[in-house]
Amino acid sequence: MLESLSDKFGKVLRDVRGRGTLSESNINETLKDVRLALLEADVNFKVVKDFVASIREKALGKEVLESLTPGQQFTKIVHDELTAILGGEDSVLELSGRPAVIMLCGLQGSGKTTTAAKLAYALKKQGRSPYLVPADLFRLAAVHQLKTLAGGINVDCFDSTEYNTPAEVCTEALRIAGLKKYDTLIVDTAGRLHIDETLMGELGGLKTILKPAEILFVADSMTGQDAVNTAKGFDASLDVTGVILTKFDGDARGGAALSMRMITGKPIKYIGTGEKVECLEVFHPQRVAGRILDLGDVLTLVEKAQTTIDEKEAVALQKKIKKDTFTLDDFKDQLKRIRKMGSLDNILSMIPGFGAMKKAKNIDFDESEMTRIEAIINSMTGEERRNPACLNASRRKRIATGSGTRVQDINKFMKQYQQMRKMMKKIKKSGGAGLKGMFQNMM
Fold it and tell me: What does the alpha-carbon distance between residue 270 and residue 218 come to, in Å, rounded to a whole number?
């Protein structure tokens, strides 16, 4: 997520922090690198110009130049300015009305249908009762896709197969939502490969019928400035209230995220961070700025952990670690929970300083490794999972055959498992004080 931009900012800020003092000349030199990094990230030129000008003005202030830690002061200024161009404060959904109507719009292929299901899933977890409405009759598979996604998350979905127009679908869906007391209506509308009058006319008609509390523009973040320009077109016709950026986990540059608010004036409300239905995050400008600058995002990491780890299970796991009875079955359970939180690379990127450590030690994560480890554990007997010490050569050969791996893979995994057990014992003895050092040594 935003790796390329984060790497460039990391280098710039490390250079600044390595200087004992700051002067106008070296600040100007640094800002040239900042400008280049943003332009390479496909950030709008006007946004880059204003961003650099604002940093220059604040960085040349007396309190920074005469500070004992000018590098840290400069980092804070950059963080604050990044937060500002990303939107400043968090933007929450407007859910007034009964039902509160959320209308999704965007180009074909931007991920509207999947996003509709993700949003329904997120709102259901908050205690609301969403009703999904497939109003995209232009793309034949869209209705079936949304019904399938709705079934997977146990959310009701309007059957639009008997209706001829999106207007008929929305009119009837509103009536049923009132009768069945749904409090949120999420409408998936049609898209096109580009903006045209027919599409905008259709969406304008649906806006009149639905009177939505939110009109959210769904954009593929990897399309950069194209997404921003398209958002302006939709906003001109519909007056959108916010933006959802999809495929944010695959966006290494960040041009759309850093340009969207300043150019359109519309806040980013959510980001899609994966293909699974639970991979939708509220957009927090300050936290994303922290990720870009490799300052971490511990709050989001904690929130993700809280949604996947039950408090009672966490206490039970802690007891096992203390008693040194942590088995391979426990290890497999923890792997499953980690995978529910998202990609391993994304999770670890939320740890402060991890980006620099990853680059310095040339760490590369292969997500398939977790699948391989699960297959290895599943190929073991109950006794072998409880007591890995019994794994002799013949047992390891059998496990390799059963899991579709090699004996070398079994040996490598068992070595890692034993190292982890030793690490847990050290953490127990040190009370957690040595965790950072051990983590770095493992890398």
Answer: 9
Report the alpha-carbon distance of residue 412 to residue 129 in Å, rounded.
48
Q: What is the pTM of this model?
A: 0.71
- For residues 277 and 204, what is the distance between their CA atoms, to the nearest angstrom? 29
When pLDDT is cut at 50, 70 and 90, the band that residue 439 belongs to is: very low
Backbone angles phi, psi at 151, to 5 degrees: -60, -35
The CATH fold of domain 100-295: Rossmann fold (3.40.50)
Domain with CATH 3.40.50.300 in the chain: 100-295
CATH 1.10.260.30 in the chain: give the residue spans. Answer: 300-442
Cα-based distances in Å from 8 to 115, 209, 326: 31, 48, 41
The structural architecture, per CATH, of the domain 300-442 is Orthogonal Bundle (1.10)
Phi, psi (deg, nearest 5) at residue 189: -100, 170
Chain segment 288-333, per-residue pLDDT in tens = 888 888 775 555 555 555 566 666 666 676 676 666 677 888 888 8
Q: Where in the chain is the domain with CATH 1.20.120.140?
A: 3-85
Give a three-class secondary structure readout of 125-147: HCCCCEEEEECCCCCHHHHHHHH
Residue 355: partners with Cβ closer than 8 Å, 6 or more residues away? 3, 6, 7, 10, 294, 349
What angle is formed at CA 230 by the lines to CA 237 and CA 84, rounded to 5 degrees?
Answer: 100
Find the DSSP H helices in 91-185.
Answer: 112-125, 140-152, 166-180
Model confidence pLDDT, tens digit, residues 13-59: 888 877 767 788 888 888 999 999 899 888 899 999 999 999 988 88
Domain 3-85 has CATH 1.20.120.140: yes
- Distance, CA of 208 to CA of 406 (rounded, Å): 62
